[in-house]
Amino acid sequence: MNVWFMTTKIFAVFFLIFVSFSLARAQTDSIYQLQAGTILRLEMDDEINSKVAAVNDTFTAMIAVPLIKRETVMLPVGTIIEGRVTKVRRASFGGKGGILEVSFQMIRLANGAKREIEGVLVKELKTETSHTANVLTILGGTAAGGIIGAVSKASNGALIGAGIGAGAGTGVYLLRKGKDLSIKAAEQIEIKLTKAVNLPVQDF
Asked: Which of 43, 55, 147, 157 could crosslink 64 through cysteines, CB 3.0-4.6 Å?
């Protein structure tokens, strides 16, 4: 009797493990689950710009290329994705470019259903580096000043000219303003989901 009871118990445990594994695998393989790493191509509705944006500003974009899994359209063109500005800084003098960081937090489906998501830009927004240009501005000023000083008859004219030129070059550098960052209206971007999300099981 005890042997039969223990055998039944062991069988029940293995059966539960098998069922749990099968359900977990079925959920993972479901076309209604978008896995972390899924790439979505979007088109911006309006422009966002580091010059005027503020942290927590919201914006929307639309699916530009349908997401298809196993020949089924999961997210059709026009599906709305909501985003939020998470970090922003305006461009400033001294060649400092703007900063604009965003996240994508919600899918709004055509039937009114919503799903929270965690999405980031595939390509980070960056301004073109201006360090080289800034150095060349200062060096160019120094060289120009040195040439002008050398033409003069003063024995230390080249040195004085170089110093004046460097100062002028530095002045130009400090007056040079960096570039602001933006994502323009109708611009297409790609985002990557960093966390899996389950879509409603229904006909899209």
From this structure: 43
> Look-up: residue for tokens 């006909």?
203
Closest CA to 129 of 173, 176, 166, 179: 179
Q: Is 81 exposed, middle or buried (0-12, 13-18, 19+ CB in 10 A)?
A: buried
Check: CB of residue 159 under 8 Å from CB of residue 4: no
pLDDT at 135: 47
* CA distances (Å), origin 171, targets 78, 82, 134: 50, 43, 11
Spell 152-165 as b/e; 16+ CB within 10 A means b. eeeeebbebbbebb
Looking at the domain 34-128+178-198, which fold is it?
A: Lipocalin (2.40.128)
Token digits of residue 110: 């055509």
Q: What is the DSSP letter of 177?
A: B
Confidence check: pLDDT of 86 > 80: yes
Pair 188, 51: CB distance under 8 Å: no
Residue whose structure tokens are 């709004």:
108
Using a pLDDT cut of 70, give the percent of the chain over it: 60
The domain segmentation of the chain, as residue ranges, is 1-30, 34-128+178-198, 131-175
**Tell me: the pLDDT tens digits for 167-202?**
544 444 455 778 999 999 999 999 999 999 999 986
* Contact between residue 106 and residue 115 where contact means Cβ atoms under 8 Å apart: yes
